[in-house]
Amino acid sequence: MDHRMPRRRVYGADHEDPDPGPRPGRAYGELVGGPLDGLLLDVTGWSAERLAQEARLPTEIGRYGAGGRAHYRRRTSDPGRWDWAGDGR
User: Which of these, 61, 63, 72, lies nearest to 32 by C-alpha position?
Assistant: First the structure.
């Protein structure tokens, strides 16, 4: 990876972690759109059934603030990307 490019951040990584990027040997999907746009979602070990379900990710930066969730669905045409489907509680 080019040292001038910032490393991608993984959803749920501690904000104080000096290396919040992806880890070798793990599987990730890119979150596209919405409040978590550009973050990586660690899907390591997820079953096919789980991957087909909507991911409802807790976040304070969505429409509902604290206690809210950003909803993402895996893109069928590009399974490495998860598209924002809206916010909920």
Answer: 72
Contacts of 47 (CB under 8 A, 6+ apart): none
pLDDT tens for residues 2-55?
Answer: 444 457 899 998 888 888 899 999 999 999 999 999 999 999 999 999 999 999
**Would you say 8 and 38 are in contact if contact means Cβ atoms under 8 Å apart?**
yes
Q: CB neighbours of 82 closer than 8 A, spacing ≥ 6?
A: 29, 30, 31, 32, 41, 55, 72, 73, 74, 75
Structure tokens at 75: 């893109």
Confidence (pTM) = 0.87
Cα 44 from Cα 77, distance rounded (Å): 20
